[in-house]
């Protein structure tokens, strides 16, 4: 199950952060997402990165905690997408497809002429769409 | 069942024993395999029951598992199998993480888990050399299940600390409630408990007479024992140490966010141990990162702790600062429903919500209005703001409290005349969740006379005055000073300044209550930064002023112009300046409408072509004093008599290109003049700036400045050239000159002990007539005996001879070198001159222009050829023509000579001949010539060749020209003059 999704701007400021758990762990998830940015920095700036991963947006598993796993994705505009899951065994292809859909939803949201770049995304449509993608992901992995 | 259990135990023991033996044999692979088998066998035993009670049984299983896992991970890590070791660790952790046991003893589980992480971290640290470098390139790819931090010990230290915190939390809960089943059943801690011979078991020693018996413990006794043991340890110190270790490692790994997470946890632990100073320090560091990156929720948590630390440290100022920052954070969530455990998660601040923000704001406002605030964690602790200890908060442009109060100040104009009013708009905005009412605003400028206070009309003016000690400050009233949330409060007033220069609004201080002030640095709307945090919110942008132009270009600074000067400052220069002279520029101050008090005259010389300074640090020029090309020498009263000379104490400062002089007080109708003496060392065009600053009345008031400038050209007055010549009809042979290539060098060769002629020409290259006072050649050497003798022998008379522009003055000197030298310095030509019409009445001593003569090469000439014939001839009358060759060497010299035919003369003597000259002797060739034509005639061409030196001499045309009179002329020359002429001819 996805616990949280986040979009982080290029100044490492949160643009969108949504938790999907009922428990009172929003702060913990914020901490997890924030700490995962260190791994993104490390991975993006690592000179030893292999050629195959160099030009890829999907950054893979970033940060395993005892009960969560964090996956990352970096767009060309340096917007960072992060997903925190409680499933400890997730297929790579599922996560990739999730990020593609999440990214598409983000692109549609920021293409709104009333949206100012680098400001928080407050669009309800975007929130609904992300919820839909999260649900579809849960259904896909359970199924 | 019992049999089955026994078999399992035996299998476990057997595997373990085989593994230990394999280790003895150094068969690591075998040892690993059997330890893994033993671990698996242990897993199967978890569900089975043994003779031990359940709590102790779980403790035993965990202890055995720990030992087996320690063996497995040690073997794997020492074998360089890092990935496998980490995978094993994860498996180990996942197998036991849910095996908590009873709630009463859950602290044992967390303690054990924490130890697992700690042990693994230490193992990883000791075998860090075995971690291959290539591992990092695979992170995040499907080939690697590992991530960056999993191979770092810091990651495990941090988790070890986390679980130790969990243990402490469980233990505290257990001790605070104190109603566990075990504590009810037996409240006594058993004595003499010690570890049993079996791993993970404990036993009690009982003395029975001389015998000591080992008895098993009941679970209740064991729990009591474990509780008492756990209480003995100060977990917090270990938690802090582990977090510190992790934090330092993450900082070194350039992972600032993970490091700050560790710092955050460390700070919380300090807070728990009531070390509020250290907690505050760490929370402050952590908060700055969250502020920088705009993580509101994370900042909220830290600020909550900081707020509490401030109360406990009795710092009302800090408390107000943190509370106001929290209240102004962009949090809009409805957090009315209080979630259980939110205090544990979010700390003292609780869940971030709009209502919490509002509560915080009202709390702070009640504090500053005199109420007391009590700590949330310790009811005995409180803070208050009193009249005796007022609180003042300063907000600068980088402060996070800009969200609380932001002040933008804009003048409506860019410049203003002194004494004229100018409009100023103060715009204030606050992001606090509720409207805030300010009692008084104090506006401060860099010119204190412009400061003013705006008072809320509700407030009594007298009350405002009574608490301020500055009675002269202007007071304005505003109907109400209320700042609604995110809405600009605009106030426009007039400001009048009498002082010219910059007028800048420095700060606006808002007073709320009697003892609280918040002082905001004023910002210009044109260069205002976005608000932290709020810049990421999608709010409607509003402008600080109604006029959008002012919002984009308004400045908090205005230029107060100077009053128009009513004093004339006259600078004059009649002609261009000449290099070397003291050029005088008269300067006159004539008051027209203003009187001049405490006047100060500044003179500045600047290169007219730009570049500012009139100096060249690289050039070293003996003519210049220092490196200045143009120098201000003095400033003196016009007239030149000693009394009117400006006293040296009145001259504040004179530098090479800058001078300041005080001007006496002058009334209208007075006149004050002075002259500036400026000396040029190099021809340069210079801008002379004179500025007079004065006060129009005797009281210290605004100063007025008058500026004048004048461009003055500096020119070279005289150009000096020179030529060396040999005496008439005398040609010494100079071997070096003969050998040197024609045109290769410009050296001058002079023969030793022979007289040469030096002609110095001085040309007036300026546009003004000059007078030459004297010309001489000054020797550079100080010795009395110079290596040459030099005499002035003729030329134009140097007694004040007028030199019109373009005119030339020639001086003729005889030079006789006395030593043989390849580099003989002949000294310098010194020309003393002055202007034909000097500006000053005083007698001018003249200007000395000096030019160095180039060094000459002096050498002994072996042969000297001199031609001798009369100064004139008469047609048809024969005369004698001698060519004399003097051998100055100690060698026998062989020469050849020839004389060519010419139409104008017939001669007797050999056409070609050769001869030998004895050492130090002279060889004379004599011819008798008869002129055939009258007028200026060229003698037959003579050629003298020295065979030894392979040098030939052809005398020059001028040296072999003679004037032939048609008949005997009649001269009437006085005897003495005749002698003089003859003497000069026979030099």
UniProtKB/TrEMBL annotation, chain B:
Residues 1-22 form the signal peptide. This is Trafficking protein particle complex subunit 11 domain-containing protein. The lineage of its organism: Eukaryota, Viridiplantae, Streptophyta, Embryophyta, Tracheophyta. The keyword Transcription regulation does not apply. Keywords: Signal. It comes from Zingiber officinale (Ginger). PANTHER family: FOIE GRAS (PTHR14374), TRAFFICKING PROTEIN PARTICLE COMPLEX SUBUNIT 11 (PTHR14374:SF0). It comes from the Eukaryota. InterPro entries: TPC11, TPR-like_helical_dom_sf. Residues 57-328 form the Trafficking protein particle complex subunit domain.
